[in-house]
Fold this protein.
Amino acid sequence: PILKPLRLPTDYVFTRPDATVASIRAGLDRLPAGALLRLRLPRLDDFGYAALARMLQPEALARGLTLMLDREPGLSRELGCGLHASSKLWPTLASRPVPAHLPFVVSVHSANELSRLAALDVDAAVLGHVLATPTHEGQPGLGWDGFAKAVWECGLPVYAIGGVGPADHERIWAAGGQGSAGIGAYWP
Protein backbone atom coordinates (compact mmCIF):
# COMPACT_ATOMS: atom_id res chain seq x y z
CA PRO A 1 0.00 0.00 0.00
CA ILE A 2 2.84 2.42 0.67
CA LEU A 3 4.26 1.99 -2.84
CA LYS A 4 0.98 2.38 -4.76
CA PRO A 5 0.94 6.19 -4.69
CA LEU A 6 4.58 6.30 -5.76
CA ARG A 7 3.83 4.22 -8.86
CA LEU A 8 0.91 6.38 -9.95
CA PRO A 9 1.04 9.73 -11.74
CA THR A 10 -0.60 12.93 -10.59
CA ASP A 11 -2.75 13.30 -13.72
CA TYR A 12 -5.54 11.01 -14.88
CA VAL A 13 -6.96 12.19 -18.20
CA PHE A 14 -10.29 10.97 -19.60
CA THR A 15 -11.07 11.30 -23.28
CA ARG A 16 -14.15 13.30 -24.17
CA PRO A 17 -17.11 10.92 -24.57
CA ASP A 18 -17.58 12.10 -28.16
CA ALA A 19 -13.88 12.18 -29.07
CA THR A 20 -12.73 11.07 -32.49
CA VAL A 21 -9.55 9.23 -33.37
CA ALA A 22 -8.22 12.46 -34.89
CA SER A 23 -8.99 14.59 -31.82
CA ILE A 24 -7.41 12.05 -29.46
CA ARG A 25 -4.28 11.76 -31.59
CA ALA A 26 -4.03 15.54 -31.95
CA GLY A 27 -4.13 15.97 -28.18
CA LEU A 28 -1.76 13.22 -27.07
CA ASP A 29 1.34 15.41 -27.24
CA ARG A 30 -0.30 18.04 -25.01
CA LEU A 31 -1.10 15.64 -22.18
CA PRO A 32 1.06 15.60 -19.04
CA ALA A 33 4.01 13.21 -19.21
CA GLY A 34 3.35 9.95 -17.43
CA ALA A 35 -0.43 10.47 -17.17
CA LEU A 36 -3.02 7.74 -17.12
CA LEU A 37 -5.31 8.07 -20.17
CA ARG A 38 -8.78 6.57 -19.88
CA LEU A 39 -10.31 5.72 -23.23
CA ARG A 40 -13.85 6.76 -22.29
CA LEU A 41 -16.08 6.40 -25.33
CA PRO A 42 -19.48 5.12 -24.14
CA ARG A 43 -21.16 5.51 -27.55
CA LEU A 44 -18.63 3.28 -29.29
CA ASP A 45 -19.55 -0.42 -29.60
CA ASP A 46 -17.19 -3.02 -28.15
CA PHE A 47 -15.69 -3.96 -31.53
CA GLY A 48 -14.88 -0.35 -32.44
CA TYR A 49 -13.59 0.33 -28.94
CA ALA A 50 -11.21 -2.64 -29.08
CA ALA A 51 -9.95 -1.60 -32.53
CA LEU A 52 -9.31 1.95 -31.31
CA ALA A 53 -7.53 0.70 -28.18
CA ARG A 54 -5.26 -1.51 -30.31
CA MET A 55 -4.43 1.49 -32.50
CA LEU A 56 -3.81 3.94 -29.64
CA GLN A 57 -1.89 1.69 -27.24
CA PRO A 58 1.50 1.98 -29.01
CA GLU A 59 1.01 5.73 -29.54
CA ALA A 60 0.20 6.26 -25.87
CA LEU A 61 3.18 4.20 -24.75
CA ALA A 62 5.50 6.11 -27.09
CA ARG A 63 4.43 9.31 -25.31
CA GLY A 64 4.86 7.86 -21.82
CA LEU A 65 1.11 7.57 -21.21
CA THR A 66 -0.66 4.55 -19.70
CA LEU A 67 -3.80 3.69 -21.62
CA MET A 68 -6.71 2.74 -19.35
CA LEU A 69 -9.64 0.81 -20.80
CA ASP A 70 -13.13 0.74 -19.31
CA ARG A 71 -14.65 -2.30 -20.95
CA GLU A 72 -14.41 -6.04 -20.38
CA PRO A 73 -11.26 -6.81 -18.30
CA GLY A 74 -10.06 -9.38 -20.84
CA LEU A 75 -9.31 -6.61 -23.34
CA SER A 76 -7.06 -4.87 -20.80
CA ARG A 77 -5.22 -8.11 -20.14
CA GLU A 78 -4.88 -8.86 -23.88
CA LEU A 79 -3.48 -5.43 -24.78
CA GLY A 80 -1.46 -4.83 -21.62
CA CYS A 81 -3.54 -1.76 -20.73
CA GLY A 82 -4.80 -0.64 -17.36
CA LEU A 83 -8.41 -1.16 -16.36
CA HIS A 84 -10.82 1.50 -15.19
CA ALA A 85 -13.91 -0.06 -13.60
CA SER A 86 -16.97 2.15 -13.55
CA SER A 87 -19.28 2.36 -10.56
CA LYS A 88 -21.50 -0.10 -12.41
CA LEU A 89 -18.74 -2.67 -13.09
CA TRP A 90 -16.63 -2.83 -9.95
CA PRO A 91 -19.42 -3.91 -7.56
CA THR A 92 -19.91 -7.02 -9.72
CA LEU A 93 -16.27 -8.10 -9.34
CA ALA A 94 -15.18 -10.64 -6.73
CA SER A 95 -11.44 -10.01 -7.06
CA ARG A 96 -8.87 -8.04 -9.01
CA PRO A 97 -9.60 -8.71 -12.72
CA VAL A 98 -6.16 -7.75 -14.10
CA PRO A 99 -2.61 -8.78 -13.13
CA ALA A 100 -0.77 -6.69 -10.55
CA HIS A 101 1.52 -5.10 -13.16
CA LEU A 102 -1.49 -3.43 -14.87
CA PRO A 103 -3.06 -0.43 -13.14
CA PHE A 104 -6.57 -1.04 -11.79
CA VAL A 105 -8.60 2.05 -10.92
CA VAL A 106 -12.28 2.36 -10.01
CA SER A 107 -14.83 5.19 -9.97
CA VAL A 108 -16.61 5.88 -6.70
CA HIS A 109 -18.95 8.57 -5.46
CA SER A 110 -18.79 8.26 -1.67
CA ALA A 111 -16.65 7.34 1.32
CA ASN A 112 -18.85 4.28 1.80
CA GLU A 113 -17.93 3.00 -1.68
CA LEU A 114 -14.23 3.66 -0.99
CA SER A 115 -14.42 1.47 2.11
CA ARG A 116 -15.63 -1.49 0.03
CA LEU A 117 -12.59 -1.60 -2.28
CA ALA A 118 -10.07 -3.48 -0.13
CA ALA A 119 -11.16 -6.93 -1.36
CA LEU A 120 -10.57 -5.94 -4.99
CA ASP A 121 -6.93 -4.92 -4.50
CA VAL A 122 -7.40 -1.73 -6.50
CA ASP A 123 -4.47 0.58 -7.15
CA ALA A 124 -6.49 3.79 -6.90
CA ALA A 125 -9.95 5.29 -7.00
CA VAL A 126 -11.48 8.31 -8.70
CA LEU A 127 -13.80 10.12 -6.28
CA GLY A 128 -16.21 12.84 -7.18
CA HIS A 129 -17.62 15.05 -8.12
CA VAL A 130 -15.72 17.37 -5.81
CA LEU A 131 -16.95 20.73 -7.10
CA ALA A 132 -19.94 21.80 -9.19
CA THR A 133 -19.69 20.75 -12.84
CA PRO A 134 -21.90 21.19 -15.90
CA THR A 135 -22.27 17.39 -16.14
CA HIS A 136 -23.77 17.25 -12.60
CA GLU A 137 -25.83 20.44 -12.73
CA GLY A 138 -27.90 20.96 -9.61
CA GLN A 139 -26.15 18.17 -7.71
CA PRO A 140 -23.97 19.34 -4.82
CA GLY A 141 -20.38 18.15 -4.90
CA LEU A 142 -18.48 16.58 -2.03
CA GLY A 143 -16.55 19.79 -1.48
CA TRP A 144 -12.95 19.85 -0.32
CA ASP A 145 -13.83 18.82 3.24
CA GLY A 146 -15.90 15.86 2.07
CA PHE A 147 -13.18 14.78 -0.32
CA ALA A 148 -10.47 15.04 2.37
CA LYS A 149 -12.50 13.09 4.94
CA ALA A 150 -13.18 10.26 2.49
CA VAL A 151 -9.56 10.09 1.33
CA TRP A 152 -8.01 10.09 4.79
CA GLU A 153 -10.25 7.25 5.92
CA CYS A 154 -9.71 4.90 2.97
CA GLY A 155 -5.95 4.38 2.79
CA LEU A 156 -5.88 4.33 -1.04
CA PRO A 157 -4.56 6.76 -3.63
CA VAL A 158 -7.58 8.80 -4.71
CA TYR A 159 -7.94 11.11 -7.69
CA ALA A 160 -10.30 14.08 -7.40
CA ILE A 161 -12.73 14.61 -10.28
CA GLY A 162 -15.39 17.16 -10.97
CA GLY A 163 -14.54 20.81 -11.43
CA VAL A 164 -10.84 20.25 -10.72
CA GLY A 165 -7.66 20.02 -12.78
CA PRO A 166 -3.89 20.41 -12.66
CA ALA A 167 -4.20 23.90 -11.18
CA ASP A 168 -5.74 22.26 -8.09
CA HIS A 169 -2.95 19.77 -7.38
CA GLU A 170 -1.69 21.60 -4.29
CA ARG A 171 -5.18 21.64 -2.82
CA ILE A 172 -5.77 17.98 -3.75
CA TRP A 173 -2.50 16.95 -2.13
CA ALA A 174 -3.33 18.95 1.00
CA ALA A 175 -6.58 16.95 1.17
CA GLY A 176 -4.61 13.69 0.90
CA GLY A 177 -5.44 12.99 -2.75
CA GLN A 178 -3.19 11.55 -5.46
CA GLY A 179 -4.00 14.14 -8.13
CA SER A 180 -6.70 15.23 -10.53
CA ALA A 181 -8.80 13.30 -13.00
CA GLY A 182 -10.91 14.89 -15.67
CA ILE A 183 -11.71 15.86 -19.19
CA GLY A 184 -12.12 19.60 -19.67
CA ALA A 185 -9.01 20.56 -17.74
CA TYR A 186 -6.83 18.49 -20.09
CA TRP A 187 -8.35 18.78 -23.57
CA PRO A 188 -8.68 22.06 -25.46
Notes: The longest helix spans residues 46-62. The mean pLDDT is 93.
